[in-house]
Design brief:
It is found in: Nucleus. It comes from Trichechus manatus latirostris. InterPro entries: FH_FOXP4, Fork_head_dom, FOXP, FOXP-CC, TF_fork_head_CS_2, WH-like_DNA-bd_sf, WH_DNA-bd_sf. The protein is mainly α. 53% of the residues lie in helices and 3% in strands. Helix 1 packs parallel to helix 7 and helix 2 runs antiparallel to helix 7. The structure holds a DNA duplex.
DNA sequence: ACTAAGATAAACACAT
DNA sequence: AATGTGTTTATCTTAG
């Protein structure tokens, strides 16, 4: 599985070159991903086979020391193979990287040019900056833990082996041989397992390749612990002080491995692209490649982010520059657009990405801690989601999607202030994965209809969606509805809807043609969206009844619902979500601030059932089963259109719509229904 | 296998 | 003519 995701990573890199097509890449993910996975597995398998064979052949009389040596050799071989695969699979000519830099930013791109074939360890040392190394080493800590485990296991095995050897002196020779063989095989298996695990981790970008670790489990730990203070030396290409040359080499290898890791991990966790999309004040997205970024800074006369304390802060440079002008000159000469600079930028991207992932994880942890220590035991957000689900997994939508949401305008009052907003990078409901994946999120799922309402989901995560380039797990229809309902008068022009999308979701700041088309398509397609002519043009409103109609009405007590919810949500969240779902299913706009009109609403309630469907369990207006926030149900659809000229037909047929806030429904959804349905035939 | 719903793409018409 | 808006059709994917 890890292998697969890694391969998808690799595969998806090129697909990102064309922004529009990036989402469609998911379709063939299984196929080609499988292929790539097979390839990599084959590589690993080859190594393993060799190891097993070799071990079986010679282990009859291998001493532990020999065995260790052999294992080290094997590990190295495997590592080399891995690197070669990485290189051959990813590398692309370095000469075009300048042209590709833009696309490289758009999508987590393979750091093709960072393949070990093209960068020597020394280069890597130059490329990486101390913080970069630190970040990468941090990730290696995870591996260290694993290593520790393996090490213990192996030590145990060795112990057993020795014991057996001693005991075996009194045993027949064959028995000893067999047992030794068995143990050593076990040992080998263990090591292979470890190596494979290491490779998998590397492919996932979870850890950097530590040759010392890869080379031999028994010696792995000490070398893994590189003190951060040593990093500068590493950066300058110096080996650790007082170490023999081969250790310097190892450091070099280490760096190379790190680069390879960074390469492979590039796209694995689909986090927002290494270089984020910056949003200009006007809401237009701007994608800055690192290079452009730096060059843009060059234009600022007063300071430069890469210049500080009199020296160049370019990774691995530290050239002293007396003044900014000299620095600029230096920057233009030494760090011009070339393969090396590009590669360095890419590495930096990886570092940033890694840090983001780390941040996301830590934030999630913090959230869990805070949730545990105080407040909201019923947070609907499933923390239990795995941190690194396979990008294509559908768990995302299962958990978070909701097409039918009511909408408490959560945006206004983020209920989870304590836990939610900590980081914009926290992928709601699912750890750090599926960022930018787009694929799974777009699909509706069963829970889309049953589970957490879009409003609450948005309320809790709007900061996240606002900043992270993640496709929101809601359907276009639900988003459009949300946008419209958020407004005081429940109407929006198309352009305003666009603006809402871009304002609320970083994801919708790109590929505008695609999603705008989708928005228009949805507006036209769904009867729940009603176009109302206005003096200034046309506005779009929501016919709540129609909207509810399209939802499969089996909510209440439906075993499937419960099942869905249980599977999709953590138990703690179940209750709240269930309630929310129930509430929303019956009263779509309960919580909408604008909709709140304490006085008039009660009568409207019945309407909902009529339409929404018998199956829906009527929520008692008194809210015995519903949270307090669920105030009187309201149907929005009776939107009061501003200055509607002669469109009585369209929307106001039922008569004078009441005030904008609540009109609702008092009237006649039915009427409305009729109005809209009349022309058509679809009364169903 | 079938169907429904949604996403995406695209063609087209119409208005500004 | 270009652009925005709106409608419609087709195709694909996913889930039930």
């Amino acid at each position: 599985m890890m292998v697969e995701s890694a391969s998808e990573t690799i595969r998806s890199a090129p697909s990102g070159q064309n922004g529009v097509g990036s989402l469609s890449g998911q379709a063939d993910g299984g196929g080609s991903g499988g292929g790539a996975g097979a390839t990599s597995t084959a590589g690993g398998g080859a190594g393993r086979d060799t190891a097993a064979g070799g071990g079986a052949d010679s282990n009859g009389e291998l001493s532990p020391a020999e065995l260790l040596h052999f294992q080290q050799q094997q590990a190295l071989q495997v590592a080399r193979q891995f690197l070669l695969q990485q290189a051959s699979g990813l590398s692309s000519p370095g000469n075009n990287d300048s042209k590709q830099s833009a696309s490289a930013v758009q999508v987590p791109v393979s750091v093709a040019m960072m393949s070990p074939q093209m960068l020597t360890p020394q280069q890597m040392q130059q490329i990486l900056s101390p913080p970069q190394l630190q970040a990468l080493l941090q990730q290696q800590q995870a591996l260290m833990l694993q290593q520790e485990y393996y090490k213990k296991q192996q030590e145990q095995l060795h112990l057993q082996l020795l014991t057996q050897q001693q005991a075996g002196k009194q045993q027949p020779k064959e028995a000893l041989g067999n047992k030794q063989l068995a143990f050593q095989q076990q040992l080998l298996q263990m090591q292979q397992l470890q190596q494979q695990h290491l490779l998998n981790l590397q492919r996932q970008g979870l850890v950097g390749l530590q040759p010392s670790q890869a080379s031999g489990p028994l010696q792995s730990l000490p070398q893994a612990a590189v003190c951060p203070t040593d990093l500068p030396q590493l950066w300058k290409g110096e080996g650790a002080p007082g170490q023999p040359e081969d250790s310097v080499k190892q450091e070099g290898l280490d760096l190379t491995g790190t680069a390879a890791t960074a390469t492979s991990f590039t796209t694995t966790p689909k986090v927002s692209p290494p270089v984020s999309h910056h949003t200009l004040p006007n809401g237009q997205p701007t994608v800055l490649t690192p290079r452009r970024d730096s060059s843009s800074h060059e234009e600022t006369p007063s300071s430069h982010p890469l210049y500080g304390h009199g020296e160049c802060k370019w990774p691995g440079c530290e050239t002293l520059c007396e003044d900014l002008g000299q620095f600029i000159k230096h920057l233009n000469t030494e760090h011009a657009l070339d393969d090396r600079s590009t590669a360095q930028c890419r590495v930096q991207m990886q570092v940033v990405q890694q840090l983001e992932i780390q941040l996301a994880k830590e934030s999630e942890r913090l959230q869990a801690m805070m949730a545990h220590l105080h407040m909201r035991p019923s947070e609907p957000k499933p923390f239990s989601q795995p941190l690194n689900p396979v990008p294509g997994s559908s768990s995302f939508s299962k958990v978070a999607v909701s097409a039918a949401d009511s909408f408490p305008d959560g945006l206004a009052h983020p209920p989870t202030s304590a836990a939610a907003p900590v980081t914009p990078l926290r992928p709601p409901g699912l750890g750090s994965a599926s960022l930018h994946s787009g694929g799974p999120a777009r699909r509706r799922s069963s829970s889309d209809k049953f589970c957490s309402p879009i409003s609450s989901e948005l309320a809790q995560n709007h900061e996240f969606y606002k900043n992270a380039d993640v496709r929101p797990p809601f359907t276009y229809a639900s988003l459009i509805r949300q946008a419209i309902l958020e407004t005081p008068d429940r109407q929006l022009t198309l352009n305003e809807i666009y603006n809402w999308f871009t304002r609320m979701f970083a994801y919708f700041r790109r590929n505008t043609a695609t999603w705008k088309n989708a928005v228009r398509h949805n507006l036209s397609l769904h009867k729940c969206f009603v176009r109302v002519e206005n003096v200034k043009g046309a506005v779009w409103t929501v016919d709540e009844r129609e909207y509810q109609k399209r939802r499969p009405p089996k909510m209440t007590g439906s075993p499937t619902l419960v099942k869905n919810m249980i599977s999709g949500l953590s138990y703690g969240a179940l209750n709240a979500s269930y309630q929310a779902a129930l509430a929303e299913s019956s009263f779509p706009l309960l919580n909408s601030p604008g909709m709140l009109n304490p006085g008039s609403t009660s009568s409207l309630l019945p309407l909902s059932h009529e339409d929404v469907g018998a199956p829906v369990e009527p929520l008692p207006s008194n809210g015995s089963s519903s949270p307090p926030r669920l105030s009187p149900p309201q149907y929005s659809h009776q939107v009061q259109v501003k200055e509607e000229p002669a469109e009585v037909e369209e929307d106001g047929r039922p008569g004078p719509p009441l005030g904008p806030p609540n009109p609702s429904t008092a009237g006649p959804p039915e009427d409305r229904d009729l109005e809209e349905e009349l022309p058509g035939e679809e009364l169903s």
